[in-house]
Design goal:
The structure holds two protein chains of two kinds. By secondary structure, chain A is α/β, with parallel strands linked by helices. Chain A contains four helices and nine strands. Chain B has two domains: about 280 residues, Orthogonal Bundle (Cytochrome-c3 Hydrogenase, chain B); about 35 residues, no CATH class. In chain B, a hairpin with a 6-residue loop joins strand 9 and strand 10. In chain B, helix 4 runs antiparallel to helix 11, helix 4 packs antiparallel against helix 14 and helix 5 runs antiparallel to helix 6. The chains are: A alpha/beta, B alpha+beta.
Chain lengths: ~170, ~400
């Protein structure tokens, strides 16, 4: 159990292709490999490799995180040895544009819609359809899982977000 | 030329037990397109967790689902314990496992009843829910509540099992095993049930992988993924687990997997009771959890639950992400519905065992005349229901049941 053979093998395959990722990927524990944040062009290249030749062809979920000035999107994938790879993409909050992975993994659809609604991500090539999970009439520009969005300023009855004037200016 | 008919089913519809909207396009009686819409029940609990401490979050997380509440709290506890670098005692791990398997029994029996109801076989609903009551009773005896048991705490469990409780669990396991033999026979040999469930809601082996199906839905398509085997948690590294698979890849297959899993759960419960280690049930965990991130997977009755927890070194999490099993199974729903008949839509939807909440165990009654409040617990409610039928000429107490009812 402690040898982590499958994990080391999976990591070596990725590092062989992308030697400069040394130090950015680490084996966290048994069955878990995590990555530091990668910016878009590089992330897409790595993602394209790991989901094909890298063997990580099972998609589990995307986790959106607020990293201050950036948004992080952690794609959780697994291979046939049940090793989970959490590959993290980073995008600036001012323009959080990422590319949809739905063409490769159709089960990413709702996860990506969730990123749009809750984090304000701009997911390019996302298939058309209903929004998820926020209700109709949700005020535009309100992304509840961003840290600056405070639940106490939200009026649930009228569906309006009313931050105090001083704090509001800062957030605008 | 006939025009296709578009039928919206939900968000409120008699055949749905939870709010979801299925926009079904029909060509004659056949479904040619299905659009699944959910989100009606989104409660923002991930945001709520960020504003509360880890221990407060545990009780929010337990309410993600009314049926598999224990497994969600187990997943969250494991995540926090891993972040804190705390290992729980083996006794606590075994008690968590016993609860998890009892929960699987109650969830699968509940599903079996719903499946029976959806195909017009209400006798099966009555039978399986009667047996489920025994499991709920023992869960209540263990955790103090029929749902949202609250037995987990960060660092272990809050209640120990006594020798008397162990005996009660054994009795219930025996009864459920005995009754389940009948359900297995029913599922495997009852021709009307096989005709009704076979061939509908197809999700092939390749499609199950493609759409990321989990739990009994994927195992019914010969995908042998069971987190208890592939990524053991709690005491599953010691408890022998057999992942049940089937090759029918339809609603029939999902039924077979679930009834056979009930047998496996009974075996696991017995193993845990036979090998329950001695020792403490709780380990101290600091209030402030060190910085870090962790992803924990567990096998809920409906499939893989995944929780991501990130800590920033305070007593509140920086981010909590919950991916419940049903969320994974909805993706293949459109595929499962297309090509089938409208009449099969309710059972196909029910076959993934979508989550919905259970009722409270007590109700508070307001007396409008006096303004007084009184509380009716579930035992009184049960007596009330028996008397309600009695005054209408149906005396359920005279019905002979094959086993002697347990009094808890």
């Amino acid at each position: 159990m402690s040898e982590l053979i499958a994990e080391k093998q999976a990591l070596a395959t990725i590092l062989e292709k992308f030697p400069f990722l040394e130090g950015k990927l680490e084996i966290q524990r048994r069955q878990r490999i995590i990555s530091s944040a990668l910016e878009r062009p590089l992330f897409e290249e790595v993602f394209g490799f790991v989901t094909t030749d890298g063997g990580f062809d099972n998609f589990h979920l995307v986790i959106g995180v607020d990293d201050g000035d950036n948004l992080g999107f952690i794609y959780v994938l697994s291979n046939d040895d049940k090793v989970m790879l959490s590959l993290k993409q980073s995008a600036p909050k001012s323009n959080p544009a990422i590319k949809s992975v739905c063409s490769v993994f159709p089960n990413a659809l709702w996860h990506e819609r969730e990123l749009v609604d809750l984090f304000g991500a701009i997911v390019e090539e996302l298939p058309e359809g209903p929004t998820y999970p926020l209700p109709d009439g949700w005020p535009a520009g309100n992304y509840p899982l961003r840290k600056e969005w405070k639940v106490e300023y939200f009026d649930k009855v009228n569906m309006t977000y009313n931050p105090p004037v001083t704090a509001g200016k800062e957030e605008e | 030329m006939a025009k296709n008919l578009v039928i919206p089913i939900g968000p409120q519809h008699p055949s749905l037990k939870e709010p979801a909207c299925f926009t079904i396009t029909l060509e004659g009686e056949k479904v040619v397109n299905a659009v699944v819409g959910t989100g009606y029940n989104h409660r923002g609990l991930e945001k709520a967790c960020e504003a509360r401490t880890f221990i407060q979050d545990l009780y929010i997380i337990e309410r993600v689902c009314g049926i598999c509440s224990h497994i969600h709290s187990t997943t969250f506890c494991q995540a926090v314990e891993e972040l804190a670098g705390v290992e729980i005692t083996r006794r606590a791990a075994y008690i968590r496992t016993i609860m998890a398997e009892l929960e699987r029994l109650h969830s699968h029996l509940l599903w079996l009843g719903i499946a029976g109801h959806e195909v017009g076989f209400d006798t099966l609903l009555m039978y399986s829910w009667r047996d489920r009551e025994l499991v709920l009773d023992v869960l209540a005896a263990l955790g103090g509540n029929r749902v949202n048991y609250g037995i987990n705490t960060i660092g272990g469990v809050r209640r120990d099992v006594t020798p008397e409780l162990i005996e009660q669990i054994r009795k219930v396991a025996d009864i459920v095993e005995e009754r389940n033999k009948y359900y297995i026979q029913l599922a495997l040999s009852e021709t009307t049930l096989a005709a009704r469930l076979g061939g509908i809601g197809k999700l092939s082996h390749d499609d199950a992988i493609k759409f990321g199906a989990v739990g009994p839905v994927s195992r019914a398509a010969e995908v042998p993924d069971d987190i208890r085997v592939t990524d053991p948690y709690a005491a599953y590294d010691e408890v022998p687990v057999t992942a049940i698979t089937d090759n029918h890849a339809d609603v029939f297959g999902r039924t077979v997997v679930r009834v056979l899993e009930i047998m496996e759960s009974v075996k696991m419960i017995r193993f845990c009771l036979d090998n329950l280690p001695e020792g403490d049930i709780v380990t101290k965990v600091p209030r402030k959890i060190p910085e870090g991130e962790v992803l924990i997977r567990t096998e809920a009755p409906r499939g893989e639950d995944a929780h991501y927890v990130r800590s920033n070194g305070t007593d509140k999490p920086d981010r909590v992400r919950v991916r419940a099993a049903s969320e994974a199974n909805w993706h293949g729903m459109k595929h499962m519905l297309e090509g089938d008949y409208l009449a099969d839509v309710p059972i196909i939807i029910a076959a993934i065992d979508p989550c919905y909440s259970c009722t409270d165990r007590a109700i508070i009654l307001d007396n409008h005349d006096t303004g007084e409040q009184s509380v009716t617990d579930w035992r009184s409610l049960r007596e009330y229901s028996i008397n309600w039928y009695k005054v209408r000429g149906i005396d359920t107490s005279k019905i002979k049941i094959a086993y002697s009812p347990l009094i808890f």
